[in-house]
Amino acid sequence: MAASVLGLILAGGLGRRMGGVDKTLLPLGGRPILARIAERLRPQCPAGLALSANGDPARFAEAFDGPVLPDSVPDLPGPLAGILAGLEYGAASGDVTHVLSVPGDAPFLPENLVARLVASLGPAPVAVAASGGREHYTAALWSVALQDDLRAWLAAGERRVGAFIARHGAGVVNWPTEPVDPFLNLNAPEDFARAEGIVSNCSPPSASG
Predict the structure, then answer these.
(1) Spatial separation of the C-alpha atoms in residues 95 and 146, rounded to whole Å
(2) Which of 113, 111, 91 lies closest to 100, judged by CA?
(3) Residue 208: C-alpha distances to residues 39, 46, 112, 169, 182 (Å)
(4) I need a labelling partner for 1 at 20 to 30 A (CA). Which of 59, 104, 172, 186 fits?
(5) Residue 110 near residue 209 (C-beta atoms within 8 A)
């Protein structure tokens, strides 16, 4: 199937375990995590990249040169609000068919993430990445046709990403976790220490799966 994919980096988390900072802007191997993620995604997303984040967008200017999308719904309801903002932005562009969401603290994403998720699309409007026996709900490909239902879902007070995916069904694509889990999230200082070791010792594989 032909798909025009917009990449969406989710940077709306509060980063409590990292002292409340923007994790995407923390350095890894001398470069912001955000810059590393954008480098991985840019060749895969023909419709470009966007960043989901609230607050002053100027703080991302040095690490990211694409649009910064604030939530379009109130009360900071979590990652689904960021995904909704990406779906709305993509739909408004007129030629985006799908949005690829990825967490803003996963610097080792696969270089074939979009290709494999697109290839897995069937009747379901979502395709989800998985590794190590775990589905990564925010590393997923979403049809822009979901925007109206997602907006209504959030308006009804629903917040759970997995529950929304289950509502529509999804294809699941698995990646290997060796030598590096491509969906490794940097949630705490010890995760950063591990990632620094990965970066300093070798470039992570493309995780072609």
Answers:
(1) 15
(2) 113
(3) 17, 19, 6, 24, 10
(4) 104
(5) yes
Does 206 map to a domain?
no
pLDDT of 120 over the 70 cut: yes
Does residue 183 sit within a domain? yes
Q: How far apart are CA 165 and CA 180, in angstroms?
A: 26
The number of distinct structural domains making up the chain is 1
> What's residue 119's pLDDT?
95
Contact 140, 164 (CB under 8 A): no
Residue 209 has pLDDT above 80, yes or no: no
* Euclidean distance between CA atoms 100 and 117, whole angstroms: 9
Which residue type, as a one-letter code, is found at position 143? S
Task: Answer yes or no: is 109 within a domain.
Answer: yes
The whole domain housing 150 covers 5-201
Query: Do 10 and 52 contact (CB within 8 A), yes or no?
Result: yes
> Which of 141, 149, 150 minimizes the C-alpha distance to 109?
141
**CATH number, residue 22:** 3.90.550.10
Q: What is the pTM of this model?
A: 0.91
With beta carbons less than 8 A apart as the criterion, state whether 120 and 169 touch.
no
> According to the model, what pLDDT value does residue 204 have?
54
Residue 208 lies in a domain: no
Q: Is 100 helix (H, G, I), strand (E, B) or coil?
A: strand
Q: Is 81 helix (H, G, I), strand (E, B) or coil?
A: helix
Q: Residue 10's beta-bridge partner residues? A: 52, 103
184 forms beta bridges with none
What's the N-to-C CA distance of the chain in angstroms?
Answer: 21
